[in-house]
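Database export, one record per block. Field names are fixed; values are copied verbatim from the stored entry.
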Amino acid sequence: FCFSHDTSAATALAAKQVTELWSEYPALRPETIRALYVASARWTPQMLSHLPAIPQKGDYERLFRRYGYGVPD
């Protein structure tokens, strides 16, 4: 087991955003709503600053571990 912090606030915010998205498009399936939400996520410039100047494929693992898919839009 390991500790993780600030996930409660992030989970609540994600639930709110997904609920708003689903209320706009009520005919979509839950899987589609999730896919739209996850696919909208991008790393911010500050997040990307943790990469080396010329990133290699393995360098992105640190971003995924630290920030997941980034900030959903």
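Remark 1: The CA atoms of residues 40 and 48 lie 16 Å apart.
Remark 2: The first helix runs from residue 7 to 24.
End of record.
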